[in-house]
């Protein structure tokens, strides 16, 4: 069975039931034929290069030792690249001067697909309330993790012929 997002139909308010649809068990409405597809949510990410270093940020809700790339949800009527640049500005106040796609990565544990860009940025860092801290890391010192944005970091390092020294998350 697919992971239930809704218990009741968002179209007619009847209870959803597990039904076979397109060869898979899905939560669906027998009254109006609504199907909960469980499509992944698009997330944009930015590996930010600032003054020759990579900016890693810590979300205010995360443990003190955990830093990652800038991320956020893609919004209506914007391209993934525009979304990554917007998130960079919203979360750090930095301006993008150059951007290029690193890649697209599945993140099944959160039912997301991450679209990651390398963004060279300028300006003065000023964190939004979403972020508690940041650090600037020499590219050769980066230690990617084996999921989500860590995979994008590893691809970015490999493309620059820098060592990919994986960190194991616990």
From TrEMBL:
PROSITE patterns: NUDIX, NUDIX_BOX. Residues 38-159 form the Nudix hydrolase domain. Keywords: Hydrolase, Magnesium, Metal-binding. Pfam families: NUDIX. Transmembrane segments: none annotated. Its cofactor is Zn(2+); Mg(2+). It catalyses: a 5'-end NAD(+)-phospho-ribonucleoside in mRNA + H2O = a 5'-end phospho-adenosine-phospho-ribonucleoside in mRNA + beta-nicotinamide D-ribonucleotide + 2 H(+). Gene3D superfamilies: Nucleoside Triphosphate Pyrophosphohydrolase. InterPro entries: NAD-cap_RNA_hydrolase_NudC (IPR050241), NUDIX_hydrolase-like_dom_sf (IPR015797), NUDIX_hydrolase_CS (IPR020084), NUDIX_hydrolase_dom (IPR000086). Belongs to the Nudix hydrolase family. NudC subfamily. This is NUDIX domain-containing protein. It comes from Limnobacter parvus.
């Amino acid at each position: 069975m697919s992971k239930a997002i809704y218990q009741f139909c968002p179209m007619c308010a009847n209870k959803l039931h597990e039904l076979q649809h397109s060869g898979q068990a899905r939560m669906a409405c027998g009254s109006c034929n609504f199907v909960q597809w469980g499509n992944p949510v698009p997330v944009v990410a930015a590996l930010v290069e600032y003054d020759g270093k990579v900016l890693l940020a810590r979300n205010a809700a995360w443990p003190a030792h955990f830093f990652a790339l800038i991320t956020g949800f893609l919004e209506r009527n914007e391209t993934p690249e525009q979304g990554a640049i917007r998130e960079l500005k919203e979360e750090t106040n930095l301006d993008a001067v150059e951007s290029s796609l690193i890649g697209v990565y599945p993140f099944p544990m959160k039912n997301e697909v991450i679209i990651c860009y390398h963004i060279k940025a300028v300006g003065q860092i000023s964190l939004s309330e979403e972020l508690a801290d940041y650090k600037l890391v020499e590219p050769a010192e980066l230690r990617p993790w084996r999921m989500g944005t860590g995979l994008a970091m590893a691809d970015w390092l490999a493309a620059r012929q820098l060592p990919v020294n994986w960190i194991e998350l616990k």
